[in-house]
Design a protein that fits this description.
10 strands; alpha/beta; 5-stranded mixed β-sheet; Nucleotidyltransferase, domain 5; 6 helices
Protein backbone atom coordinates (compact mmCIF):
# COMPACT_ATOMS: atom_id res chain seq x y z
CA UNK A 1 0.00 0.00 0.00
CA UNK A 2 1.22 3.48 -0.90
CA UNK A 3 -0.02 6.27 1.34
CA UNK A 4 0.52 10.01 1.09
CA UNK A 5 0.16 11.63 4.53
CA UNK A 6 -0.47 15.35 5.02
CA UNK A 7 -0.42 17.36 8.25
CA UNK A 8 -1.04 21.10 8.54
CA UNK A 9 -3.12 20.98 11.72
CA UNK A 10 -0.67 22.66 14.09
CA UNK A 11 2.78 24.29 13.91
CA UNK A 12 4.20 22.38 10.96
CA UNK A 13 3.54 21.76 7.29
CA UNK A 14 4.40 18.12 6.69
CA UNK A 15 4.03 15.30 4.20
CA UNK A 16 5.32 11.75 3.85
CA UNK A 17 4.93 8.79 1.54
CA UNK A 18 4.67 5.35 3.13
CA UNK A 19 5.05 2.25 0.96
CA UNK A 20 4.41 -1.08 2.67
CA UNK A 21 6.03 -2.95 -0.25
CA UNK A 22 9.30 -1.02 -0.13
CA UNK A 23 10.30 -0.91 3.52
CA UNK A 24 8.17 1.92 4.88
CA UNK A 25 8.77 5.66 4.55
CA UNK A 26 10.19 6.50 1.11
CA UNK A 27 10.07 10.30 1.44
CA UNK A 28 9.27 12.76 4.18
CA UNK A 29 9.53 16.49 4.88
CA UNK A 30 8.35 18.67 7.75
CA UNK A 31 8.72 22.45 7.97
CA UNK A 32 8.00 24.18 11.28
CA UNK A 33 5.57 27.08 10.87
CA UNK A 34 2.76 28.72 12.78
CA UNK A 35 1.32 30.44 9.70
CA UNK A 36 1.63 30.19 5.93
CA UNK A 37 0.48 26.58 5.48
CA UNK A 38 -1.66 27.47 2.47
CA UNK A 39 1.31 28.82 0.54
CA UNK A 40 3.69 26.05 1.62
CA UNK A 41 1.67 22.85 1.32
CA UNK A 42 1.51 22.29 -2.45
CA UNK A 43 5.23 22.95 -3.15
CA UNK A 44 6.10 20.70 -0.21
CA UNK A 45 3.85 17.93 -1.52
CA UNK A 46 5.48 18.20 -4.94
CA UNK A 47 8.94 17.84 -3.39
CA UNK A 48 7.95 14.80 -1.35
CA UNK A 49 6.29 13.07 -4.30
CA UNK A 50 9.36 13.74 -6.48
CA UNK A 51 11.65 12.35 -3.78
CA UNK A 52 9.47 9.25 -3.46
CA UNK A 53 9.49 8.90 -7.27
CA UNK A 54 5.77 8.26 -7.43
CA UNK A 55 2.83 9.84 -9.23
CA UNK A 56 -0.37 10.78 -7.43
CA UNK A 57 -2.24 8.28 -9.62
CA UNK A 58 -0.11 5.46 -8.20
CA UNK A 59 -1.07 6.14 -4.58
CA UNK A 60 -3.56 3.88 -2.82
CA UNK A 61 -4.88 6.48 -0.39
CA UNK A 62 -4.32 9.95 0.99
CA UNK A 63 -4.37 10.45 4.76
CA UNK A 64 -4.72 13.81 6.46
CA UNK A 65 -4.94 15.04 10.04
CA UNK A 66 -8.40 16.45 10.67
CA UNK A 67 -7.97 17.97 14.11
CA UNK A 68 -8.26 19.22 16.63
CA UNK A 69 -5.86 22.00 15.74
CA UNK A 70 -5.66 25.38 14.04
CA UNK A 71 -8.93 26.15 12.28
CA UNK A 72 -7.13 27.58 9.24
CA UNK A 73 -4.46 24.88 9.19
CA UNK A 74 -7.03 22.09 9.27
CA UNK A 75 -8.89 23.49 6.29
CA UNK A 76 -5.66 23.82 4.30
CA UNK A 77 -4.60 20.20 4.78
CA UNK A 78 -8.07 18.74 4.30
CA UNK A 79 -8.64 20.77 1.12
CA UNK A 80 -5.31 19.56 -0.29
CA UNK A 81 -6.07 15.92 0.56
CA UNK A 82 -9.58 16.04 -0.89
CA UNK A 83 -8.39 17.79 -4.04
CA UNK A 84 -5.62 15.25 -4.66
CA UNK A 85 -7.97 12.36 -3.94
CA UNK A 86 -10.54 13.70 -6.39
CA UNK A 87 -8.00 14.34 -9.15
CA UNK A 88 -6.24 10.98 -8.68
CA UNK A 89 -9.41 8.96 -8.14
CA UNK A 90 -8.15 7.64 -4.81
CA UNK A 91 -9.77 7.52 -1.35
CA UNK A 92 -8.91 10.10 1.30
CA UNK A 93 -9.16 9.33 5.01
CA UNK A 94 -9.06 11.58 8.05
CA UNK A 95 -6.96 10.94 11.15
CA UNK A 96 -7.31 12.53 14.57
CA UNK A 97 -4.37 14.76 15.49
CA UNK A 98 -4.57 13.38 19.04
CA UNK A 99 -4.27 9.80 17.77
CA UNK A 100 -1.34 10.84 15.59
CA UNK A 101 0.45 12.19 18.66
CA UNK A 102 -0.23 9.07 20.71
CA UNK A 103 0.55 6.43 18.09
CA UNK A 104 4.38 6.31 18.45
CA UNK A 105 4.14 5.96 22.23
CA UNK A 106 1.50 3.24 21.94
CA UNK A 107 3.63 1.43 19.35
CA UNK A 108 6.61 1.63 21.71
CA UNK A 109 4.68 0.26 24.72
CA UNK A 110 0.95 -0.43 24.71
CA UNK A 111 0.82 -1.58 28.35
CA UNK A 112 0.67 1.90 29.90
CA UNK A 113 -1.77 4.73 29.37
CA UNK A 114 -1.04 7.62 27.00
CA UNK A 115 -2.48 11.11 27.24
CA UNK A 116 -2.42 13.24 24.08
CA UNK A 117 -2.87 16.94 24.87
CA UNK A 118 -2.94 19.91 22.49
CA UNK A 119 -2.87 23.53 23.60
CA UNK A 120 -6.34 25.01 22.99
CA UNK A 121 -5.44 28.37 24.59
CA UNK A 122 -7.18 30.17 27.46
CA UNK A 123 -6.01 27.46 29.93
CA UNK A 124 -7.79 24.78 27.92
CA UNK A 125 -6.48 21.71 26.12
CA UNK A 126 -7.75 19.25 23.56
CA UNK A 127 -7.44 15.88 25.23
CA UNK A 128 -7.68 12.16 24.57
CA UNK A 129 -6.65 9.34 26.92
CA UNK A 130 -5.62 5.95 25.54
CA UNK A 131 -5.53 2.81 27.65
CA UNK A 132 -3.88 -0.59 27.33
CA UNK A 133 -3.73 -1.74 23.73
CA UNK A 134 -4.44 1.80 22.53
CA UNK A 135 -8.15 1.70 23.30
CA UNK A 136 -9.80 5.03 24.05
CA UNK A 137 -10.52 5.69 27.73
CA UNK A 138 -11.44 9.37 27.36
CA UNK A 139 -12.79 10.43 23.98
CA UNK A 140 -11.48 13.59 22.28
CA UNK A 141 -12.72 16.69 24.08
CA UNK A 142 -11.82 20.20 25.11
CA UNK A 143 -11.14 20.56 28.84
CA UNK A 144 -9.58 22.91 31.33
CA UNK A 145 -6.07 21.96 32.38
CA UNK A 146 -7.38 20.99 35.81
CA UNK A 147 -10.01 18.69 34.32
CA UNK A 148 -7.43 17.28 31.93
CA UNK A 149 -5.20 16.33 34.87
CA UNK A 150 -8.12 14.63 36.58
CA UNK A 151 -8.85 12.62 33.46
CA UNK A 152 -5.19 11.75 33.01
CA UNK A 153 -4.59 10.34 36.49
CA UNK A 154 -5.50 6.77 35.61
CA UNK A 155 -2.32 5.04 36.77
CA UNK A 156 1.13 5.01 35.15
CA UNK A 157 0.81 7.44 32.27
CA UNK A 158 2.82 9.11 29.51
CA UNK A 159 1.89 12.52 28.13
CA UNK A 160 2.60 13.83 24.64
CA UNK A 161 1.59 16.87 22.60
CA UNK A 162 1.86 20.64 22.50
CA UNK A 163 0.24 20.92 25.95
CA UNK A 164 2.14 18.04 27.57
CA UNK A 165 4.21 20.34 29.77
CA UNK A 166 1.17 22.34 30.83
CA UNK A 167 -0.65 19.21 31.96
CA UNK A 168 2.44 17.87 33.74
CA UNK A 169 3.02 21.22 35.50
CA UNK A 170 -0.49 21.03 37.00
CA UNK A 171 0.04 17.51 38.33
CA UNK A 172 -1.04 17.32 41.99
CA UNK A 173 1.56 16.80 44.69
CA UNK A 174 1.53 13.30 46.11
CA UNK A 175 0.17 11.71 42.93
CA UNK A 176 2.33 9.32 40.95
CA UNK A 177 4.13 11.55 38.43
CA UNK A 178 3.93 10.88 34.68
CA UNK A 179 6.39 8.30 33.40
CA UNK A 180 7.16 10.48 30.38
CA UNK A 181 6.38 14.03 29.29
CA UNK A 182 7.11 14.70 25.63
CA UNK A 183 6.44 18.14 24.22
CA UNK A 184 5.77 18.16 20.49
CA UNK A 185 4.40 21.11 18.54
CA UNK A 186 3.09 18.80 15.77
CA UNK A 187 2.71 15.06 15.20
CA UNK A 188 5.54 13.06 13.62
CA UNK A 189 4.50 12.90 9.96
CA UNK A 190 6.12 9.50 9.48
CA UNK A 191 3.78 8.09 12.11
CA UNK A 192 0.82 9.87 10.53
CA UNK A 193 1.66 7.99 7.33
CA UNK A 194 1.95 4.66 9.15
CA UNK A 195 -1.35 5.29 10.91
CA UNK A 196 -2.89 6.16 7.57
CA UNK A 197 -1.85 2.80 6.14
CA UNK A 198 -3.23 0.89 9.14
CA UNK A 199 -6.51 2.79 9.50
CA UNK A 200 -9.79 1.39 8.29
CA UNK A 201 -11.27 2.98 5.21
CA UNK A 202 -13.27 6.07 6.14
CA UNK A 203 -16.80 6.90 5.08
CA UNK A 204 -16.96 9.98 2.91
CA UNK A 205 -14.32 12.68 2.54
CA UNK A 206 -12.33 13.89 5.58
CA UNK A 207 -13.98 16.61 7.67
CA UNK A 208 -12.49 18.91 10.33
CA UNK A 209 -12.70 17.81 13.97
CA UNK A 210 -12.95 21.19 15.68
CA UNK A 211 -14.30 20.20 19.15
CA UNK A 212 -15.24 23.83 19.83
CA UNK A 213 -16.36 27.01 18.08
CA UNK A 214 -13.71 29.39 16.70
CA UNK A 215 -12.49 32.29 18.84
CA UNK A 216 -13.14 34.75 16.01
CA UNK A 217 -16.81 35.64 15.67
CA UNK A 218 -18.66 37.84 13.16
CA UNK A 219 -18.86 41.47 14.24
CA UNK A 220 -22.60 41.97 14.05
CA UNK A 221 -22.39 45.52 15.40
CA UNK A 222 -20.25 46.57 12.44
CA UNK A 223 -22.38 44.88 9.81
CA UNK A 224 -23.93 47.26 7.28
CA UNK A 225 -27.73 47.09 7.01
CA UNK A 226 -29.14 45.65 3.81
CA UNK A 227 -31.26 47.83 1.62
Amino acid sequence: MRVLAIDTALEACSAAVFDTDHGGITASESVAMARGHAEAVMPLLARVMDLAEIDFANLDRIAVTTGPGSFTGLRVGIAAARGIALAAGKPAIGLSTLAAFATPLIAEDDTTHVVAAIDARHDNVYLQVFGIGGRTLVAPRVATIRDAVRAAITGPVRIIGSAARQVAAAWPKGAEPPLQVEHRSAPDIDWVARLGAAAAQGYGPPKPLYLRAPDAQPQDAARLPRR
